[in-house]
Design brief:
Layout lengths: L3 H6 L11 E9 L4 E6 L5 H13 L3 E4 L11 E7 L26 E10 L5 E7 L2 H15 L6 E10 L3 E6 L8 H13 L4 E4 L21 H5 L5 H14 L2 E6 L13 H14 L4 E5 L9 H22 L11 E6 L10 H11 L7 E4 L10 H11 L3 E5 L16 H7 L16 E6 L9 H12 L6 H13 L1 H14 L4 H16 L6 H18 L7 H28 L16 E6 L6 E6 L7 H17 L1
Parallel strand pairs: 2-3, 2-4, 4-6, 8-9, 8-15, 9-10, 10-11, 11-12, 12-13, 13-14, 14-15
Antiparallel strand pairs: 1-7, 5-6, 5-7, 16-17
Helix pairs in contact: 2-3, 4-6, 8-9, 12-13, 13-14, 14-16, 15-16, 16-17, 17-18
Length: about 625
């Protein structure tokens, strides 16, 4: 493999997450209309179907050729295989596979090679070689973005790629309205495109996760329950089907609370296994156990009981679903566990050490989560080294970002470091480590707005795939069209600073200049008016998403609607008043167009409330209040 510097100088494709190495090869290649997909042994149906979907989405006609049948001449092909240095696909095309395979010796994850070359007629031949079929699936995400640039005259390239973090994605664990089935499935498809593989479901306000944790999901729910995120068995079955199609490990988590640490409840594991059995029938193939937010035990006997229960539960899962001869489609992956002490800074180092050492006796394959020293800590090597030293294994990180359950009226849709500054619970001076060590899972706890959370998710996916290559602003800049599409990217990028609560950076200069001109006795609102008109116009562009043919667009509009409509009304009023019109004042606090529902609490303490969105609250809202009496008094004079 060539050096990193040479690779960077020859990168022909703008792919996210940023690949570890692209090597530009001579020539270009074009795809024939009909493209043969050539899967080898070990490539599963989900990977084959993903290849078909990508080609079809780009106007090509995919044809699957079974393993052992050589590709036809005069047609492009996509070769999919699990790494095997002795592999052959016919003398004419064998050169496709003559690539440096040393990447498969690296202690990394989802390792794969993508090779695009042209044959003697200039037709594109693609080989994706992965450590397993899941790694090949990741390679297809790169091919998808390559084809976004066109299907003709594509630069030939070899991409050597892998993930720095094994499990990457989302933990739906915030306090608020759970995502609808439609949003969840849309997130799965987005995750597949950007090489994420983990979605842990632990919605605090889902009663069948917490309050009724031992009961099966209902077969029917009311319209109101559906609106606030409740799920039926059929919805859950639909969700898991899409998870399997997109190769997202959908981890359904149970929250038995203090029952897990109650020596007087010997049936707790039976109840958990019964619930897991019902979820397995709905398609779930990985489980989690949450005992967070119920109090940190100090009694060594209780700590030992939790550890023993966790070990016993993993053993029961293995005995039921992972025994010899079990179908691969029925097997269940290792448990994910969120303990009572997930922020080790809550207690002294001595107590934290005692707590995590009690968990060190559990099977090493169980994933144990922390949030760092604090609830809102940014992943860092200091916390990882400390806790992994006590626990004796790599850690999983539940990252409360860009979670807004403590600030539900605010949106965090800017770049990572701007979001750190906006989210008052996060250290706004925190910075991303260039190399994380001792971490096998990085999943983010997002906002109640799942579609808008894709912006932060995109950059976290970028970072967890390739720590060292992460660039804060470049990643955000790429996230906008990735999330809202090219047609809406310009408008959304204009609006993003204004959808925030803290808008002072975007507006301060123009507002200050206007106010200074008023004090001088020669009001000049032109620059401010121009900016406000551009923001209002961008709002109107984004409103058309409500009627888009794309479900993702419509779902995103539903997320942003209260903030968008309020911002549009605010800018329209400000423009009118700056133009000298004494228009009726708008009630921004109680207008239903600017409001949304949220849920609070968990278990038996879930409550519904209505809140009002707060975009541009720091500078634009005070400006409106300032303009009203001033212009009114001027009119009177």
């Amino acid at each position: 493999m060539c050096s990193a510097l040479v690779a960077m100088a020859n990168e022909p494709y703008n792919i996210y997450p940023v690949p570890h190495e692209q090597v530009r090869n001579p020539g270009t290649a074009s795809f024939s209309q009909r493209v043969l997909i050539f899967p080898q042994d070990g490539i599963d149906i989900a990977t084959i179907n993903r290849a078909k979907q990508i080609l079809s989405d780009h106007g090509l006609v995919p044809v699957v050729i079974m393993a052992g049948t050589p590709p036809h001449n005069c047609q492009s092909f996509v070769h999919l295989s699990v790494n095997n240095p002795k592999e052959k696909i016919g003398d004419e095309h064998d050169a496709v596979l003559r690539v440096d395979r040393s990447i498969f010796n690296l202690p990394k994850y989802d390792r794969h090679i993508l090779n695009l070359k042209s044959d003697s007629k200039g037709l594109a031949n693609v080989a994706i070689i992965g450590e397993d079929t899941d790694a090949v699936f990741c390679g297809l995400a790169s091919l998808e973005q390559m084809l976004d640039q066109g299907t003709s005259d594509l630069p030939c390239v070899t991409i050597y790629d892998y993930a720095d973090v094994k499990n990457r994605g989302i933990i739906e664990g915030y306090y608020g309205v759970p995502y609808t089935a439609e949003v969840t499935k849309d997130l799965f498809r987005f995750m597949a495109r950007y090489k994420m593989n983990t979605y842990m479901y632990g919605a605090k306000s889902d009663p069948y996760h917490s309050r009724y944790w031992s009961d099966p999901y209902p077969t029917t729910i009311t319209a109101h329950e559906q609106r606030i995120g409740y799920l039926t068995q059929d919805m859950m079955r639909d969700i898991t089907a899409v998870a399997h199609e997109t190769k997202v490990n959908f981890i359904w988590a149970i929250h038995p609370g203090n029952a897990f640490a109650n020596a007087e409840d010997p049936q707790v594991l039976d109840k958990i296994m019964a619930k897991f059995g019902s979820m397995h029938q709905l398609g779930v193939r990985q489980f989690g156990v949450f005992v967070d937010d119920v109090g940190v035990p100090s009694d060594p006997a209780i700590m030992k009981l939790c550890a023993d229960n966790l070990s016993a539960l993993q053993n029961r899962i293995d005995a039921r679903w992972n025994k010899a001869g079990a179908l691969a489609t029925d097997t269940v992956k290792p448990l994910h566990y969120v303990p009572q002490l997930y922020a080790h800074g809550w207690v002294s180092d001595e107590r934290a050490q005692e707590f995590y050492e009690s968990l060190s006796t559990t099977p090493e394959k169980i994933n144990i989560y922390i949030t760092g020293r604090d609830v809102w800590s940014v992943p860092n090597n200091e916390d990882l080294a400390r806790v992994s030293g006590w626990l004796g294994r790599e850690l999983s990180w539940w990252w409360n970002y860009p979670c807004n359950d403590q600030d539900p009226s605010k949106l965090f849709v800017m770049d990572t470091y701007s979001n750190f500054r906006d989210e008052t619970h996060i250290n706004n001076l925190a910075r991303i480590e260039k190399h994380l060590s001792g971490l096998n899972t990085l999943i983010i706890n997002p906002m109640q707005q799942g579609e808008l959370s894709k912006i932060a998710l995109f950059s976290v996916a970028d970072y967890s795939w390739n720590n060292a290559a992460f660039d804060n602003y470049d990643s955000w800049d790429a996230a906008i069209p990735a999330v809202v599409g090219k047609d809406y990217a310009k408008a959304f990028k204009k609006l993003a600073p204004y959808l925030r609560y803290y808008d002072e950076d975007a507006l301060a200069y123009r507002i200050n200049n206007y106010q200074a001109s008023v004090r001088r006795g020669s009001p000049n609102p032109n620059s401010l008016l121009k900016e406000l008109c551009e923001v209002r116009d961008a709002c109107q562009v984004l409103k058309t998403m409500a009627h888009s043919a794309s479900e993702s667009d419509r779902l995103l509009y539903n997320d942003v609607r209260p903030w968008l409509l309020k911002l549009e009304a605010m800018t329209a009023e400000a423009i009118s008043r700056l133009d000298g019109d004494n228009v009726p004042a708008i009630d921004y606090d109680s207008n239903p167009d600017f409001q949304f529902e949220t849920l609070g609490g968990m278990g038996e303490h879930i409550s519904l409330k209505v809140l009002t969105a707060e975009p541009s609250n720091v500078r634009l809202m005070p400006l409106l209040k300032e303009l009203r009496p001033k212009l009114s008094s001027q009119k009177t004079q």
